[in-house]
Structures are given as structure tokens and as C-alpha cells.
């Protein structure tokens, strides 16, 4: 008998075998599909591996740089602007470092609930209460104003709640105060570097210094000059910008994320300018000129005080000035430095040209007697003296001191047109002085080839040509400096960030006349200040300029202005001028004065002569600079009319 369960080794129960036999074997198509799927999977894995190798190996640096560029941005660091100083290193203009506080209101509004906890706001705080806290804190730290900008807390609050992509809270903030604010509200309130240009003396010398302010539209934003030396010397003052890297918010505006600034390259400060101006002299000259101009009735006025040897400008003033910190409200007249930009017909101060040429050429001597009629015909015009007289004898010194037009023309005719024209050129008329002041107009001297018959009747008496105030004073500087014309100078030196100083290049000096001629003319011009109570015929035209104890040399001038209605000379409006040398025996200063478009008024000396103003300025200069008394202080009066 067979035992149950016995059978052939390895055989399975029928039921099992039957179940196995019922399974379907793969068909040919099925096998193909499985193979293709496996191949695709392998290919995808290979492609992914290759891409991973490329990304991690070959493209890693480029992709990292691209990702970094999406969140970091290089930015310039503005250089500190150089100062402008007077000759004694007093500050006339300087910059202080500041910050502009800004926020990204859109992020504040979006993330305010997170910020409440971050900045330890009380339970139940809202977006409104948090922004109110921010505005109040900023106001508390800064105060009611910052560098002249008034703080408006409600306006700040409006900006914080605006939802705008960017908003400036306060323009100019002291860096220390800005740091207190950003430390409390770091990440929400940012501080960008900026500079504030300050002018501690207000409108003093503003026509020279000019104005500068922060200009956001420039590339890069920085303080740039708008007017005056601030503008013309902008490259010297501006320095070299540095560079930093910041993180910026995504978006086209690239707003800097507060607290992400990193310096890379520090900025190099600009050089400072030391001017020849003396602050005290500038102030006093401004005060005296403005007061005198108002009394004279002139439409405009200017004055210059120059060193007789070096031509350094100690003061250059106009009657109209402006506040450089608020230059946008200044009129064109206030901004205009008329002393150099507005040439005028000088009148009799120009007679120094005829005198210099005549003495240099030996045509006359100081005591040469000239028969002077009351008038003289020149081509189609008749030239008269300012006072009516018949034929009189005058010394050549008297011709100058009494400002005789006729006597001057008679002498100029002896000099001749060629030598007279050459002397105009030597004195620098019709040419820029090279002073370094922006906007200088060279004036007009008709070319000799274009002279008409009456031209030589006008030029010797200061009509028919124009000059600026520096040119006028420069003629007298030449005579004060023994015949050597030194171009006027306003910039004394450039002081680099390291403290080194260099003098800017200036035009060459010009020998105009010999030292002997210059001294002779200078001595003759002393007679202008002469006053002899016992003989009025010996009085000069500028006796009110005299200063007791000092010898003064100078010349008065009166020129008719052109009436625009007819294009002819006016009989009611004049340019009143004066140029003087202090002291005549040992020249230290030259002063030039111009009162333009003045109507003479009876009983008003200021409307007919600038000599009294010279007296006031000379009195101040002798005290300010402790100028020794002349030796001898009094000289015998010259003979003007024998």
C-alpha cells in the first residue's frame, strides 16, 4: 500500500499545478513595451546625471553669480566734498556727513504682524499703532528739524502707511542720530549716506562761492556745484567716489534692504580751496557798498579790494547777494557776479592809459603846460569838459587831477593811435583777466582797424569801450606795482585730502610801463585828492577820497550810459567810478568801485562821486591791516593850473 502523501519526490499537489498552469505567458508586444520603458528610464537617469554634473561642475560659478546678482547690487559711496576757505582758513563752505532715512512701506504693511513681535510691540498692537510708534521715535530722536529741514510727523506717518515701494522719511540726518534710529528699527528703517553743504556766513561772498547741493539725478548721486566756484571748481572739490555692495529687494526699483550695506572701496575726499578773500574785509566792503549804493540811487554797484603787488583779491562785492542754502529763490540779478560778468563804460578812470603812454613815450612831463580850450571837435562830434570854461593853461598833472576831457584828448593825439592802442592791449583791456572767477566777460575794445573818426575822441576819456571791474582795478594795480601787471587771483591754493597744498597755475605777468613811468603817474594821481582852500583852481576832483595821514593816488570817473530807447548816450544816467591806490608812497591795496546807472541828484554827493566811499573803505583797511602812516604824510600841493 502506498502511504498517504507519498508520491514522487518534488511533485506538487494537483491543485497547485493547475493554478500555475493557468498564468498567462508574456506576449511579444508586451516584452517590447517593457524593454522600451526600461530604456527610457535609463536614458532619463543618464540625462539627469549629466545635467547634475554640468550644474555642479561646469555651471556652478555662473549660476551662483547669477543668483547673487539678483539680490546684491554694487553702489557708489559718495566722496566727501572739499571745503572752501578764506585766506585765514575760515570756512566759507563745507560739507557735513548726513543720512537720509528711508523705508519700504510695502514690506512694512505686508509683514507687520511679524514686526510686532520683533520690535516688542505690546499685546494687541496694530499696524497703525506700530507705525505711529516708529514716527514718534524718529521725531523724538531728531527733534523738530534737521539741518534746516522741518520734521512733519503726520507726513512721516502717511509715508509709513502708504504701501509704496520706497519712501524717504527725512532728507538730512546727523549720522549719530540716524544710528540710534536704525538700531531700534533695524531692518525696517534704512539710512543712506548723503552730505549737506553748509554756508556759515549766509550770503557773504555768495557771488564768488556760488552754491552746491545734493543731486539725486546724477550718476552717481552726489553733491555738485550749481553756481560760482562751487560749479567751476566742481571736479577739484568733488573727490573720487568709493564703492559698496548692498542687498536689494526684488523688483525694477532695486530698493536697498536696510542693514545690508558692505563697504568694498572707500571714497577719496575732494580737495579744499583756499581763497584770497578775507572774511572780515569782505563783510565790511559789502556793508559799505550796499549802504552807499542805496544812498546814490544807482541801479547796481560793485567793489574790489586787491593786493597792490600780488593782485590777490581780498574782497569782491556786489550790492545784490543771495543765500547759497536757498539759492532756488534767488533772482538772476542776485546770482550774477556783476563785478566780472557785466562790463561797463568806465569814464575818466581810463585816462590812466593816456597818461601812462604819454609819460612812457616822453610826450609830456607832469609839469608840462597845455593850453586847454573848453571844447574840441573830433570828427563829427564835439567833446567838452565837465565844467564850462574858455581856454586855460593846465599842467599835465592838472589835466588828470581835474579830469579834463579836452586836455586828455590833446595829449592822446600827441601819443598817436598806434601807441595808444598798444597801451590798451598791454593793460589787458578786451581780454579775460584769468582771475579764476566763472562767467567773466572780457569787455569790448574796438579793433584799431575798425576805428571811425570819432573813436579816438571817445576811447581816451573812457567811452566807446567796456571793461569789467577787475580790469579797471588792474590798470591801477599795474601803476601801483611799478608798471608790472599781475593778473588778479581769487584761488590762493588747493589743499589735498592729505594736507598738501599747491598753487594753481595763473597767467604770466606783463610789463606795461617802466618803474619810473609808473612812479611818475602814481605821483601825478595824488593830485586828484588835492584840496587847497585858498585856491579852488588847484583842487582835484576826488578830494573827498583823501585820508588824513596817508598819501592816496586815484582817479574819479563819470561815463554816460547808453539810452536803449535811442541807442545814443543818455544825459540823465551815468556810471560813476573810482580807482585808488593806498598808500601812494608804499602801495598796499588797490580799490576799484563802480556805481552803475546813477542819476545825479542835487545835494546828494553819493550820486555824483564814489570818492567818499573810497575814503570809508581806505579808513577801514588802514586800521584792519595796521598800515603805517605815509612819510611824509603831507606833500606840497601840485600845480594844476599855473
TrEMBL record:
Region (Disordered): 1-29, 491-512
Annotated InterPro entries: Beta-lactam/transpept, Beta-lactam/transpept-like, PBP_dimer, PBP_dimer_sf, PCN-bd_Tpept
GO molecular-function terms, A-Z: penicillin binding
Keyword set includes tRNA-binding: no
Swiss-Prot/TrEMBL keywords: Membrane, Transmembrane, Transmembrane helix
Biased composition (Basic residues): 20-29
Listed GO biological process terms: cell wall organization
One Gene Ontology cellular component: plasma membrane
Bias (Basic and acidic residues) ranges: 500-509
The protein, known as: Penicillin-binding protein 2
